[in-house]
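=== RUN LOG ===
request id: a7f3
mode: sequence -> structure
chains: 1
length: 453
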Amino acid sequence: MKIKSIKSTIFSKMVLTVCVAVVAAVAAMLFIACVIYSANTKNEIMVSARHTAEYMNTLPSSEDKLVFLHSMFDGSEDGREDGRKTFIAPGGEVLYDSDADALRMENHLSRPEVRQARETGSGSAVRSSETVGERVFYFAVRLDDGSVLRAEKPLVAIYDMLLAMIPASALLLLIIMIVTGFVSKTITRSIMQPIYKIDINNIDEDEIYPELLPYFRRIKAENEEKEKTDAIRREFSANVSHELKTPLTSISGYAQMINNGMARPEDTAMFGLKIEKEAERLLLLIDDIIRLSNLDETTGVYDPEEIRLDELVSETVRHLEPQIERRELKVTQSCGGCTVSGSRTLVSELIYNLIDNAIKYNKEGGSIDIYTEITPEGIEFSVRDTGIGIAKEDIDRIFERFYRVDKSHSKTVGGTGLGLSIVKHVAMVHNARIKVSSTPGEGTTVSVVFKNI
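=== RESULT ===
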């Protein structure tokens, strides 16, 4: 499929528009000229006929009228310009015709213009003449003695004028098209010049058409988002490689020591246990990566169900009870009977990761408050701990994959660094909003607002 450029589109549209406008204007001018010429011709014939009739009414007899007509119109150029004249007796016989033999002409009493003139004083008609074989305008005037004077003139002169104007009009159209092409090319170039100079990274500083500004801002935003996504993808790939390499290196090292006989018999069990833990860590990391990949492809919950948050919280706390007891934490639940609509599995993942983080990054003997609150926006689920807290500059990054606020501390608590990324994606799938408030050294509160539907 051929794709037209903006420049060629603007140029062709301008040329086409001007040409159509010119053709329409020329056609309208020709039409108006014909109408005006026709009206003027008819008016001249009518005026000439009335003046002649007025003079003929002053003549005493038909013979005097005939003498006047012969002297006035026979062989006279002025008479020809005023049109053909026909003098008709009250009975319809043709007494005189300036262009034909009156004796050979038939009775004109049935002619529409003659009949109308006899009835009303004047009459007109347009028809093809049998005598001259052309379209003719007839105008008849009744004289005082009942006779009729008729003037006529062929309308072919109008069409002759139209045909005469066509070559001039065509030449004018050709000149206008050439000038239009040149002017359109110049205007198109001037229109496109600011667009060619646009720097997509500095559109607010460039002189740009206001109508195009939203479009280029959207392109800039999409480019920035693409660059950000590419950077995150590269960082994610690097982090995945690093995170996978660490346990695999440990597993490979311990296994080689055992195979090469470097491990003492009494250390074999310990090496096996470390291999098992590193393998569990590796499997956990792979599971989290698979979850995130699935969440990346999920745009919504297609078969939502009503979920009681207090039930999921109780199940999660029971599952994490060994870690809670080991760190001597006090857990308080105040979830009531609040329910949200969504995927039970995904919401369970969200709750698990929030509580798990509150345990890992808490102080020994600290506390965790888990509660829900009904707000104008919806159901707000919150987990508050008394842990190490998060610095203000790190809050915006804690939901990035593999990002850890305190990397040294993270080595002791374990985990994959993907928990909050999973929380973020589960919230997005449920059209929920996440809020974080934290004070370093005092604790952190993470809230998820499930909007009312």
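=== NOTES ===
The two ends are 45 Å apart (CA to CA).
The chain has a mean pLDDT of 78.
=== END ===
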